[in-house]
């Protein structure tokens, strides 16, 4: 978590959709979407392993729609195809896929399901955090925001054919200097990207420099000697052929780049009854609206839950001394604005929809809400109610 110092350098990293762990996240979320399309109340906990020319699916599902292993294999294969893997060690056409997905445990179902005298409970115990800060228009920490945008541009240029020398696997890392608590420029930028064998390092470096200069705000570019492009040299073998991938290993990339606390639970492959996911979305939604309402310049919200219990055990708001009112008033207000039970969150944010594959690369937060169904937790529709309840 960031210190309250006024002058410092802070670093965040991102990884592309072609990174082995991100491939796993996307496959897990694509299968979640597959079930939610057919059964909005489906319960899914899906894990994916990727390695050289092999994908392994495991986990549990409870749904009115039967588990069709052939269909799940097709979903996984199509994700790899859409990412663009057509390499000898990982090719969507001929990779082997093993499926070990089975029915959900009856014990878990009994603890979580609503009953005649029982509300739907949380799918597990745990703590979840949401965060917002006024460093970018998206109210995201600047380092992770720009790290994501650089890699998204590389992906867009690769898929559109604008450049022909990029392959899918890439990573970025940005260190930003903060003065008086605000980001002012990059001190170093690191981009490592897989490329075709015949691409020279000069061509690659010139291209990456042009992307970084375009993405960063005017005047933020680091000195040329502090721009590191493939610092170990060539990067031809990549993706799962270079390193195995697993669902849920990029939780800091998925959230705030280390600028805020993390409860430890991963998101991808989990249906929205799992508060690891849904409560983290709710906490971001509330924190973002608090900052957008001018009640604080940055805000962190912690929620805690117990398996089988519907209401959060605790709600904690921290504005790092930036609040324009007492933080206890904000805590009181958000309990009136939103039902933070698992069902309440799912209903308010419309989470029982097949909206999760787009979340599985380039971050779950700070994303566009142009599609009314997707990223509902990024909407700013509580501002007026917050101001009324606080008396601002």
List the helices and strands and how they pair.
Elements: E1 8-15, H1 20-38, E2 43-51, E3 54-62, H2 69-83, E4 86-87, E5 90-91, E6 96-103, H3 106-112, E7 126-133, H4 142-160, E8 166-179, E9 182-195, H5 201-215, E10 227-229, E11 245-246, H6 251-254, H7 275-292, E12 298-305, E13 314-318, H8 327-337, H9 342-349, H10 383-390
Parallel strand pairs: 3-6, 9-10
Antiparallel strand pairs: 1-8, 2-3, 2-11, 4-5, 7-12, 8-9, 12-13
Helix pairs in contact: 1-2, 4-5, 7-9, 8-10
Structure description:
The chain has 392 residues and is of the alpha+beta class. 32% of the residues lie in helices and 23% in strands. It is built from 10 helices and 13 strands. It has helices at 20-38, 69-83, 106-112, 142-160, 201-215, 251-254, 275-292, 327-337, 342-349, 383-390; strands at residues 8-15, 43-51, 54-62, 86-87, 90-91, 96-103, 126-133, 166-179, 182-195, 227-229, 245-246, 298-305, 314-318. It has a 4-stranded mixed sheet with strand order 1-8-9-10. Strands 6-3-2-11 form a 4-stranded mixed sheet, with helices on one face. It has a 3-stranded antiparallel sheet with strand order 7-12-13. α1 (20-38) crosses α2 and α8 crosses α10. The radius of gyration is 21 Å and the shape is flat.
């Amino acid at each position: 978590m960031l210190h309250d110092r006024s002058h410092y350098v802070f670093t965040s990293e991102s990884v592309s959709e072609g990174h082995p762990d991100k491939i796993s996240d996307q496959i897990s979320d694509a299968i979640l979407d597959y079930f939610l399309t057919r059964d909005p109340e489906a319960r899914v906990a899906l894990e994916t392993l990727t390695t050289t020319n092999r994908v392994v699916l495991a986990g549990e599902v409870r749904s009115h729609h039967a588990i069709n292993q052939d269909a799940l294999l097709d979903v996984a294969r199509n994700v790899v195809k859409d990412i663009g893997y057509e390499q000898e060690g990982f090719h969507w056409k001929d990779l082997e896929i093993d499926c070990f997905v089975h029915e959900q445990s009856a014990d878990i179902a009994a603890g979580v399901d609503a009953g005649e005298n029982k509300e739907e409970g949380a799918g597990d115990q745990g703590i979840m955090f949401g965060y917002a800060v006024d460093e970018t228009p998206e109210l995201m920490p600047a380092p992770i925001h720009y790290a994501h945008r650089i890699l998204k541009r590389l992906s867009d240029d690769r898929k559109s054919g604008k450049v022909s020398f990029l392959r899918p696997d890439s990573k970025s890392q940005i260190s930003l200097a903060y003065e008086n608590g605000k980001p002012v420029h990059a001190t170093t930028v690191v981009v490592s990207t897989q490329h075709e064998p015949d691409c020279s390092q000069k061509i690659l470096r010139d291209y990456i420099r042009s992307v970084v200069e375009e993405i960063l705000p005017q005047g933020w570019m680091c000195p040329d000697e502090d721009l590191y492009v493939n610092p170990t040299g060539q990067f031809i073998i990549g993706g799962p052929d270079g390193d195995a991938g697993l669902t849920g290993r990029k939780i800091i990339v998925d959230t705030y780049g280390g600028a805020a606390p993390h409860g430890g639970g991963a998101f991808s492959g989990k249906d929205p009854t799992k508060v690891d996911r849904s409560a983290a979305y709710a906490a971001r939604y509330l924190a973002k609206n608090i900052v957008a309402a001018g009640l604080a310049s940055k805000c962190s919200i912690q929620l805690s839950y117990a398996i089988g219990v519907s209401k959060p055990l605790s709600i904690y708001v921290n504005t790092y001394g930036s609040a324009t009112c007492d933080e206890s008033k904000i805590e009181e207000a958000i309990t009136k604005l939103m039902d933070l039970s698992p069902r309440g969150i799912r209903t308010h944010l419309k989470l029982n929809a097949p909206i999760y594959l787009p979340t599985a690369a380039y971050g779950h937060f700070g994303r566009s809400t142009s599609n009314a169904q997707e990223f509902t937790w990024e909407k700013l529709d509580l501002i007026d109610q917050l101001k009324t309840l606080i008396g601002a």
